[in-house]
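quick one if you have a minute, typing this from the bus. below you get a single protein, a line of residues and a line of whole numbers that encode the local backbone shape. could you go over both lines and see whether the tokens make sense for that sequence. anything you notice is useful, everything is just below.
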Amino acid sequence: MSNKFSEVGNQLKKALLTGVSYMIPFVIPGGILIALGFALGGIYVYETPGFAADMFSWGKIAFGLMVPALGGYIAYSLADRPGLAPGFIAGMIAETQGSGFIGAIIGGILAGYIVLAIRKIPLPAALRSLMPTLIIPLFGTFFVGVTMTYIIGVPVTWLNTAMTQVLANMDGGSLVILGLVQGAMLAVDMGGPINKAAYAFALAAASVNNWGPMAANFIASMSPPMGLAIAMLLAKRKFTDVERKGIGGCFIGGCVMITEFAIPYAAADPLRVIPSLMVGSAFGAALSYVFGLTLQAPHGGMLVMFLANKPLAWLFVLALASLVTALMLILLKPNVDEQSEVEVA
């Protein structure tokens, strides 16, 4: 029984990661085009026809597909291609009914398992050829629609609304605690499931026009590679010659918000590097909330920093977070024995 639960758990984990991974290509261009539309056309860009308004509308279309894509590709991971249509439709229902990301996750899982159940129904050979084009899409969509609309919709929409209100009403100490947790999650596995969960939280907040978590997300994701680069410049004896060759890459990775540049260093010395990155990211995310920072883009690092409400303050907090990361690394890491250098890939 425990093996069965473990298998299902791993299956769901894989499905969630697949959904988030396939959702990101919709999110990034959508969010950046919306932000550029606002930057070029002002806060009421959608009211004045023109290039800025067109760009804003393209971004809205892309951004609006992120929740359906999440549901669709969760179902795809569970049931392969037959799960795509019911999963996308579950995500679209979640988007329109207001249950958002939570509804899309539940709907995508539901669609995947409904499709798997339909595929097991014994049918005459003459009907089995209709399974992929008619029976699965029709009945999968029907059962997903009924469940999402009449069973899941109301409670999950209420939960999503309640969570949004709680986030909007947070202030002071509660925001600091949120930042500490969010920042630590983003740094602990650098692109893994915990990181993606924190990123999905920031996306969910952005979808209801709360861009505070996204500003914190940027800082916490950029400071690990930047902090490593600073530490290697300040304390050369703590790192091998091969590791120090990555200084430029870490700076570039930090600037463009690719946390994964820090992974080789974390893999080489996880007990010292990962806690250092978590402390710096947690500090930066918490300080971002203290400064009241927002950033209206889902990705891009310094390329989109002008979309922050306080660009100079945002840069200042990023610099502090990176410095804290570097100081933690310098404090925890011993001097390298050059005779036993470990090469970093």
Remarks:
- The chain has 15 helices and no strands.
- The two ends are 40 Å apart (CA to CA).
- The CA atoms of residues 92 and 125 lie 33 Å apart.
